[in-house]
UniProtKB/TrEMBL annotation:
One of its GO terms (molecular function) is kinase activity. It holds the Pfam family PfkB. SUPFAM superfamilies: Ribokinase-like. Residues 53-313 form the Carbohydrate kinase PfkB domain. InterPro entries: Carb_kinase_PfkB-like, Carboh/pur_kinase_PfkB_CS, PfkB_dom, Ribokinase-like. This is Ribokinase.
């Protein structure tokens, strides 16, 4: 089986379910977005969280996807940076527990935290304090980190450091890996469109985007955005929520329906787990359609729980269902 290495912001998610969205307005966090926050705003959010029931989980877009892949039985690795603190230890221990080859670096800043607000409709909004994750630099990366893998998954959230993300992709290319990118968030794409365009056009083999991200990237609706992105890379995937996903490779244009879910609890990780399922299918040599169906299967399961942690019995069910797709 092909191996997958991911690089991303190593964040610990602190999740809280909201009764209404008033706190998002108060915190100036646009619903459904990911906003970077400073330590001062993190402390204000923590004051709110101290009066709410919260849930702790390892997070970060690539981290979630790599976790999902590992739970399916894929051979995985993860590169990131954490602090020498309780959250950093929590992150490392979770990687090891799930058989992920951890390549975590340590710095003096506190570990990154993604304060995650879950609206009544299941939409999630992030106030992200990057902390230690933001100190991962180009010079931290070596060719040896990427050798022995087939795919490299990177998150668009890392685009704040152009030198680092370019260094990572160039090293991965040098090691012969296929490059996969998740565009991450519509506002991130809008704010650095020229750089995203260069990355996809010149380096990337597989692009994952949801409908809003695809529109931010191309200015077009899902169907037209898929065509434009597909002209820039080998495989383009545009996810359209409850309507499913569009997959394009050359002349192969496939629509994979989403699986029906009676109640959406929390959409955190839905896109990350779709990427995990899709890439797992690729490592197994499955058709594009089956890859998309595995992505949909994982997404449907993760949106029925708070956070991105599924119990082992659920993973056993998923594995059995994959065999029947």
């Amino acid at each position: 089986m092909d191996k997958i290495i991911g690089l991303g912001n190593a964040l610990v998610d602190v999740l809280a379910t909201l009764n209404d969205d008033s706190i998002l307005t108060e915190m100036e966090l646009p619903k459904g977005s990911m906003q970077l926050i400073d330590n001062a705003k993190l402390q204000v959010i923590n004051q709110h969280f101290s009066r709410m029931k919260t849930h702790l989980a390892t997070g970060g877009s690539t981290g979630n996807a790599i976790l999902g892949l590992a739970c399916l039985g894929a051979c995985t690795g993860f590169i990131g940076k954490v602090g020498d603190d309780e959250y950093g230890s929590f992150y490392r221990e979770n990687l090891i527990k799930n058989g992920i080859d951890e390549k975590l670096l340590i710095c003096d800043l506190p570990s990154g935290v993604a304060s995650t607000f879950i609206s009544p409709d299941g939409e999630r909004t992030f106030g992200t304090y990057l902390g230690a994750a933001s100190t991962l630099k180009a010079e931290d990366l070596t060719l040896a980190m990427f050798q022995g893998y087939t795919y490299f998954l990177v998150e668009g959230y890392l685009v704040q450091d152009h030198d680092m993300i370019l260094r990572a992709i160039e090293l991965a290319k040098q090691a012969g890996l296929q490059i996969c990118i998740d565009l991450a968030s519509y506002n991130i794409v809008e704010n650095d469109l020229e750089f995203f365009t260069m990355l996809v056009r010149d380096y990337v083999d597989i692009v994952f985007a949801n409908e809003e991200e695809a529109r931010a990237f191309t200015g077009k609706d899902a169907a037209e955005a898929l065509k434009q992105i597909g002209q820039m890379c080998s495989i383009a995937i545009v996810k359209v929520g409850a309507r499913g996903s569009h997959i394009l490779r050359g002349q192969d244009d496939i629509m994979v329906p989403a699986l029906p879910v009676s109640k959406v609890v929390d959409t955190t990780g839905a896109g990350d787990y779709f990427a995990a399922g899709f890439l797992y299918g690729l490592t197994c040599g499955y058709s594009l359609e089956k890859c998309g169906k595995i992505g949909s299967l994982l997404s449907a399961n993760v949106i029925q729980v708070v956070g991105t942690t599924l119990p082992q019995h659920k993973w056993n069910e998923i594995k059995l269902n994959i065999n029947t797709l």
